[in-house]
Amino acid sequence: MLIRCSVGLKNLKQRHQSGGIPVDLQTIRRNLPLEAWECVRAGNPDARLSEMFIKTLGKEDTRRPRMDMGLGVWTDKTRRYYPMDRIREQGKAFIDEVDGRKVLIYIEPETATPAALFVDSKTAQLQGKEIRLDNGAAIRSGILFDRQGKRRDANRPQQIFTRWYGFALTFPGSEVFGQ
């Protein structure tokens, strides 16, 4: 079954109802391929803001589409937005650098939401439902495990899963990964 990201949650529910499948989100999640679930979690890319609300936003940062979804990361020195499409292009897991520290940027396989985690690693790769790091560590369900499988404390930068317009208004002039 092919489901494009432009199909909203309402249409997904209708498609599943017509097939006799219950429509609660957990059932939809179990019956959709991961890519389709990412679309549901990322929201409707065709969503629109009301004209009345748009007038309150001030000057728009047009480097990304207003309703684009991504991960916003910030520190005392850095404000960076990671668009979902760029995270996917990088294999859904990759290492970047923020303020001289290595940071893992990834899409959590079980929730299809982006997240960031400071790591001591040079590469990351999605393998099934976990992110594998070149130092032997792994991230499963957002939890960091060392090479022996022992749970470790995770150090994370400040972050938010957000639409571009919200991050750009909160952090004017922020960096956009890949631009």
List the helices and strands and how they pair.
Blueprint: H1 9-18, H2 25-31, H3 34-42, H4 51-54, E1 69-74, E2 79-83, H5 84-89, E3 93-98, E4 101-108, E5 113-118, E6 124-127, E7 130-133, E8 138-140, E9 143-145, E10 151-152, E11 158-163, H6 164-170, E12 175-176
Parallel strand pairs: 2-12
Antiparallel strand pairs: 1-2, 1-11, 3-4, 4-5, 6-7, 7-8, 8-9, 9-10
What does this structure look like?
- The chain has 179 residues and is α+β, with helices and mostly antiparallel strands.
- The protein folds into 2 domains: 9-42, no CATH class; 69-176, 3-layer Sandwich (Rieske Iron-sulfur Protein), CATH 2.102.10.
- Helix content is 24%, strand content 31%.
- The protein is built from 6 helices and 12 strands.
- It has helices at 9-18, 25-31, 34-42, 51-54, 84-89, 164-170; strands at residues 69-74, 79-83, 93-98, 101-108, 113-118, 124-127, 130-133, 138-140, 143-145, 151-152, 158-163, 175-176.
- Strands 6-7-8-9-10 form a 5-stranded antiparallel sheet, with no helix packed on it. A 4-stranded mixed sheet has the order 11-1-2-12. A 3-stranded antiparallel sheet has the order 3-4-5.
- β1 (69-74) and β2 (79-83) form a beta hairpin.
- The protein is elongated, with a radius of gyration of 18 Å.
Summarize the structure.
The chain is α+β, with helices and mostly antiparallel strands and 179 residues long. The chain has helices spanning 9-18, 25-31, 34-42, 51-54, 84-89, 164-170; strands at residues 69-74, 79-83, 93-98, 101-108, 113-118, 124-127, 130-133, 138-140, 143-145, 151-152, 158-163, 175-176.
